[in-house]
Design goal:
Order of helices and strands: EHEHEHEHEEEHEHEHEEEHH
Largest sheet: 3 strands, parallel
Number of helices: 9
Strand content: 15-25%
Helix content: 25-40%
Distance between the termini: 28 Å
Bound molecules: zinc ion
Structural class: alpha/beta
């Protein structure tokens, strides 16, 4: 059985990029007779706000995107992440890291697109305490998967990003960890999301495998919505917020049509 999810971060209101993603999620999943879960990804406590979560859920309902279960919030799932962390720790895979981002930038060899953690603290045996992040040791393996849109892909997370941060220095779970754990625990089998997350697919597959997941989900990465050929739509853009379009008198079908027009030909 197919299980997919729509997983917005409540760091702003729903915008047309979300609607495009939701269209992909609902269309693909319903066509395959699958189930859709709603997950509020509020792992970032500094930037997430409950009023954004409420407004996102309200706009989704207004647009007619009905999920098959009540929404879950990552902020309610700390025990689940703690449990996953315990399992990794018992396998000797977790270590504390005292490095700041600027320290990593100074000593790390940056790959083409992102900062790679060079493993500075891997053998230091630092105690786990407040102010230190936690990392999981990655295997130096090539992750191979077939993206439903891009085809066969190979990624080597240990070279892309190095040992993966699972909890940051402020005690917050990272996106990569929380999403991989949630997809595992919620038995998600189909992940539909934007191309910006394509580079992190391999590390999520590996993290899930380290947690015991034998079969990774299927992945479909769609094109991001662009305002111009080089500028992607972001949640801070007032002209593309569903709130603003509603206030201008747009109906749900107008917003859906607008979102569809951004997908055509991609
Ligand atoms: Zn470190």
């Amino acid at each position: 059985v197919i299980v997919s999810r729509f997983a917005p971060a409540p760091t702003g209101h729903l915008h047309i990029g979300h609607v495009v993603n939701a269209l992909h999620v609902w269309t693909m999943t319903r066509a395959r007779g699958g189930t859709i879960l709603l997950r509020i990804e509020d792992h970032d406590r500094q930037r997430s706000r409950p009023e954004f979560a409420a407004s996102i859920l309200d706009d989704l309902a207004w647009l007619g995107f009905d999920a098959d279960a009540p929404p879950v919030r990552q902020s309610d799932r700390v025990a689940i992440y703690e449990d996953a962390l315990r399992r990794l720790r018992s396998g000797g895979l977790v270590y504390a890291c005292s490095c700041s981002r600027s320290e990593i930038a100074a000593e790390g060899a940056a790959s083409d697109t992102e900062l790679r953690y060079p493993g500075t603290c891997a053998a230091r045996g630092l105690p786990e305490h407040a102010g230190y992040g936690l990392r999981v040791r990655l295997e130096a393996t090539v992750e191979r998967f077939v993206d439903l849109r891009h085809g066969p892909i190979e990624q080597t997370p240990s070279e892309q990003c190095g040992d993966l941060l699972v909890r940051d220095r402020y005690g917050q779970w990272t996106y990569q960890f929380a999403a991989a754990v949630d997809d595992l625990v919620q038995r998600v089998t189909l992940v539909i999301r934007g191309d910006d997350l394509l580079p992190s697919t391999g590390r999520q597959i590996q993290l899930a495998r380290l947690l015991g997941r034998t079969t990774p989900p299927e992945f479909f990465h769609h094109a991001l919505v662009m305002k111009t050929p080089t500028q992607k739509v972001s949640k801070s853009d007032n002209d593309t917020g569903v709130r603003e379009l509603r206030a201008k008198g747009w109906k749900p079908e107008d917003v859906i049509d607008y979102a569809k027009s951004l997908i055509v030909g991609r």
